[in-house]
Structures
1.
Amino acid sequence: MRALTGNRLTDGEAVFWKAGAWVERFADAELFAAEDAAETAEGHAKAQQTIVVDPYLIDLVESEGLWAPVSYRERLRALGPTNHPMHGKQAEGGAAIEALRHAHGAARSTGRVNLIKRK
Amino acid sequence: MYQYDAIDKDVLADRAAEFREQVDRRLKGEITEDQFKQLRLMNGLYLQLHAYMLRIAIPYGSLNSTQMRKLAEIGRTYDKGYGHFTTRTNLQFHWIKLKDAPEILDHLASVDMHAIQTSGNCIRNVTADPYAGATADELDDPRVWSEAIRQWSSLHPEFSFLPRKFKIAITASAKDRTAAKAHDIGLMIRRARDGQLGFEVIVGGGMGRTPFIGPTVREFLPANRLFSYLEAILRVYNRHGRRDNIYKARIKILVSALGREEFARQVEEEWAKIGPAGDLPDTEIARIRGAFAPKAFDVLVNRSEKYEAALATDPAFARFARNNLKPHKRAGYTIVEVSLKGIGDTPGDATSEQMEVVADLAERYGQDDIRVTHEQNLVLPHVRLDDAHTVYLALAKAGLGTPNINLITDIIACPGLDYCALANARAIPIAQDIAKRFADQDRAELIGELKIKISGCINACGHHHVGHVGILGVDKKGEEFYQLTLGGSGAEDASIGKILGPALPADKVTDAIDTLVEVYLRERHDGERFLDTFRRTGDAPFKEAVYADAH
């Protein structure tokens, strides 16, 4: 399973793709089971240059019955900094945030690796 | 402090206006992100994990209360009420919105501040001794030369697109508080036997992926020849620096590849071509020197009855005085170090309220002078001993009275993976955890000087290579691991730390530090710091203990 993410141009907020638009909460992100659908969405996202910066696909794992990014870096983006628990998206709390906090994974997102290679 | 003239002010106003237009064009889609990125970085604006980060220059770590209050205001208005002081003596805001950035630059310009040359392959902010103008052991005021370099290097067309970034440090004291030997150029002010002022010039130090302690390329450079010599160094670098490979592009790689002698020879050759025409006139140096004329110090005796009485009656103040007050060159004055390393806090962070407290104290008791250290603390360089207790009480009330300068809890940590797009692992929680373990001040003082420095990636913003104990975060298949290095120093006895062994998982790091400390306490001879003991014994006892515990 994959999701599509990037940073919003106007404020740098980490955002996630949902049916052609961008949402702030990872829990609201569109999940892609099919590779084709994910890559098509990524193509559309890359065309939205005045909305989002450097969109890329991230890999997900199951955590507490919900989906969470495999890579720790992506979970931090979806949560906020660990030294300020009330800063960033984590401040609102709830089951989706807890699932992200408890998730385990041990790989970088392939999408981001591709992005680094491209640069 | 140096005062900007009308031209300086116009340059900053123009720059802010130019950036406003560039942001507007980006938002409208008239330029792409690839085109815009270069422009925003030239104004210190990075895109990180959660938001934009704005890095603001604090030239040679020196600012006044008006500027500090402005930073507090920006933190409160545009960030989340705090800022992060860095190992480059700059200030970073981590929650900036692109659309607000031009307005923030206007605010900064209103107090003669900016974010120019805080990113990019140019000459960055100069690091100077934070005790400049206050310490008795300096041969000259390094701020004079730092300011001259700032003016010379700002928007210098020849040196705006170097092979890679370029950092200069200046110290005038035997005790190096700038990590001069780990900079691209380290300038150590010297006095010749005939009394002439000059510099020992060290080139090619650095940290990052390939750390080096810089070699001395010239033992004594007459002070009035500084700028032609700097120009010669930068020209040789500009000509031969490895633009083809970002990992080999710093001047340290060039100096290492050519060898010290050959590099020095090429610099001398270039220097001869430039000649004295490349130097600043003495009158210009004198003009700049005027801005740093000694403050109007009161004539005082060295003993303050008020201070002595406070020491005798307030043990917390006595502890603060032991660790955070440093000798001043004038009788009856002291240098106050303000720790931004509260136990369990984020190293280098200050809230807007704390910035305002420091600004108020500087204005009222400290000749309106504030410094930032590369160890991420603040300094009030000129406080009367009579006022030291009052200043301490105000600092303590604001959570700034931690008496731990140079102790094990005075840890450098970069923002790490909690914020930084380049990081592989977090640095801040490791620092917080270690500080909590050593929260007992008696134990911390028993251990004495021990500098822990933590970086979240090999770029080494946390200076781990020159920590007595360095900690480097690495990514092992997506998991955070930490590699320990021992025996580094960024001071006058500079050295690069040696890797102790395999990286440890995050939850083993603090235990390992505890073990290192126990070995040190067991092995140390009278008067030895951790670093001295390590240098005498080598890594064997430390390695044995840490890996016996870890496995």
2.
Amino acid sequence: MTHKLSADNLTLIRGERCLFSGLSFALQSGGLLILEGRNGCGKTSLIRAVAGLLSLEEGTVCWDDVPVGKQRQAFHGKLVWLAHRTGLKGDLTLVENLGFERSLRAHSRRDPEEVYERLGISRLKKLILRSLSAGQQRRVALARMLLADVPLWFMDEPFTNLDREGRALVMELVEAHCTDGGLCVMAAHQDVEIDAPTTRVKIR
Amino acid sequence: MNEPAREIPGIFAGLVATARRDLLLAWKRPGDVLNPLFFFAMVCTLFPLAVGPTAEQLEFSGPGVIWVAALLATLLSLNSLFLSDFEDGSLDQLLVSPQPLPALVLGKTLAHWLTAGLPLVLVSPVLAITYRMPFSVVGVMMLTLSLGTVSLSLLGSIGAALTVGLHRGTALLSLLILPLAMPVMILGANAVSLAAHGDVYTTGVWALGAYAAGSVSLAPYATAAALRISNE
């Protein structure tokens, strides 16, 4: 089943400032969208707006040609979001955190143990998240993405805090996700080497 | 992705999971639970020392003092309802989850009541003894406090959701909630006083029950809408 995420003529105003206007893009199954722009230009805000957390001044975001606003809950069932703040509880262990996430979303067919192994966090299962390093916490947030059965990935600066190996792993995972027919929207500073049909959107 | 999509867990699973997570967090940080409880116990024990310990005064003021203290203790605990979720980004994650937000909110409020409201109800008999409350009245007090704290948790969640993005929103939260919470306190304290005098008190209890039922069915929707607004 192919999916389509499209945005038409988006305008977002925060306070007095217009972050972007007339911004459009379209993304098909298997495609990768990279958001570029300097710090504070509105990459995160764009992701938040597309996810339906910010109301746009103008323009519509459509999933499979239906406006997202008209099918919010169904759309949210199709996406998982790796945000800048991981959204994991520091007082809970890795397993407790991900167990909670699993009862919210559709599960993927991947075996959790294999996912932990692949992300190099299987040793940390019993530890509370507060005691992990920032990079390790980001890997746990990546595990949340892999354990959810959703076609659309939002990644806000996925390489932050990750070591070289971790960055390569993220690119590998995104590539595999796109090859499987998934979609990925990524805000990134670094050069991204991912073998997938890529669209670049520059925010000024 | 060619396989059929897996099912999203049901609405009840989301509610229970949210309540369970918050209870687990409260268990790991007992201080947050104990603070309002200490406040409640302290107000109730200090009051007789200040106004005088004669039996008459105590019997007269008991229901009122216990109810005011319960109201304030609940307000004290409400501030943190969504704050940590807001700060660590889990609120964003809840807002983009495929579960209906009112159900998740109800789960959170349920956990809040279990950790903030229920302990007050359970401790109140001990404090009632210091006010020379007869045994038959203690039952009425516990019943009204249970119904009342359920309403307070739910109504308070609306205020907590509206003020979550503001720094130091505690004062504003209290101002927003008090008009809605006042009837709960008046009805509750009044019912206990009537019971203590041997009068008919059931009207107040029914009214509190209606208030609680109304809050359970309406407040989660208001809170969910408020969260979407204040998290923009």
